Amino acid sequence: FQLCQIGEFKRRAELALERLAHAAPPQWVAELRLNVALGALYKNTEDSEEGFLRAYARAEELADHVGVPKFKVETLVARTVSNIEKGDTPAALAASDELLDIAARMSDPVAQLIADRAAAQARHFAGQQGRAREFAARVLAHPARSIPLAYSHAAIDRRVWMRIVQARALWLEGFADQATRVAWFSGALVS
């Protein structure tokens, strides 16, 4: 996936999932991770929304079965973003709230970072601009340099997206000058 060998990645992931379906003992975590990866592939290529939804639904089912909170993080982020894209802001807020709750119970600061990032996005698109800016500021202040691939299939610069959320929120709140400064800022981080 990272090398953009999309066709090969898809074939190998689907083959691995076929083989895992018959594994004894069941390999729940491997199946979960492959469904997350395949769901991300479906979401970011020309494949159907149906494939994405099916893969992430299975990943969420497996995460519940395994019972390790860490495995719920990526599936809840995907559910949050998918609902934002569909315009279902109540469902996006519910998913991000569930993610915030899980992250708060974990002793993993990266999980909290990811939950705050999803919450900033959900609140921004739900029209809760003040709350969106608060969550974005928490993400920008977080000391982590990056989000590990164990939590995210792609290395996205969280600072760029959170400054976009801040600028758009400020603009919508009527603070055009501040929004312009955030949008054009090219030096140290803005919080």
Structural class: mainly alpha
In what range is the share of β-strand residues? under 5%
Query: Cα distance, first to last residue?
Result: 32 Å
Task: List segments where confidence is low: pLDDT < 50 over at least 5 consecutive residues.
Answer: 186-191
Question: Could you tell me the radius of gyration in angstroms?
Answer: 18 Å
Helix content: over 70%
The main β sheet shows up as: none
Total DSSP E strands: 0
The DSSP helix count reads 9
Q: How would the global form be characterised? A: elongated
Mean pLDDT: 86
H and E string: HHHHHHHHH
List the SSEs and their pairings.
Layout: H1 6-20, H2 28-43, H3 49-66, H4 70-86, H5 89-105, H6 109-125, H7 129-141, H8 158-172, H9 176-184
Question: Features of this protein?
Answer:
disordered C terminus; 191 residues; mainly alpha
What's the short story on this structure?
This protein is mostly helical and 191 residues long.
Model description:
This protein is mainly α. The chain contains 9 helices and no strands. The protein has helices at 6-20, 28-43, 49-66, 70-86, 89-105, 109-125, 129-141, 158-172, 176-184. The radius of gyration is 18 Å and the shape is elongated.
